[in-house]
Design goal:
Number of helices: 4
Transmembrane segments: 7-27, 61-83
Number of strands: 0
Helix content: over 70%
Keywords: Membrane, Transmembrane, Transmembrane helix
Structural class: mainly alpha
Largest sheet: none
Distance between the termini: 47 Å
Order of helices and strands: HHHH
Length: 87
């Protein structure tokens, strides 16, 4: 158990973008499935409101984690690569 935790922490520190993206999409998928189950009990308008609140909340958490966990160099390198691909 300890070895699994240490591997996860090492990977999390080394590749925060990949792990946070995976976490983000897994949480989004889980909420979509939960909202689909709730749909039987509520109207579609309420589902849409709930879904939007969940997604906005998840996106804000995802973005804040990315900027807290990633070093400034990592973010600037990523932006540099994006700009190179754009040109």
């Amino acid at each position: 158990m300890y070895r699994t935790k240490s591997i996860f922490v090492t990977a999390f520190l080394k590749y925060p973008l990949i792990l946070m993206t995976t976490l983000y999409f897994s949480i989004t998928l889980k909420n979509s499935i939960t909202l689909f189950e709730i749909k039987k009990k509520t109207t579609s308008k309420q589902i849409l409101i709930n879904n939007n609140k969940h997604l906005v909340y998840l996106k804000s958490i995802f973005i804040s984690f990315m900027f807290r966990l990633s070093s400034f160099d990592y973010v600037t390198n990523l932006l540099h690569l994006l700009l190179q691909n754009h040109n």
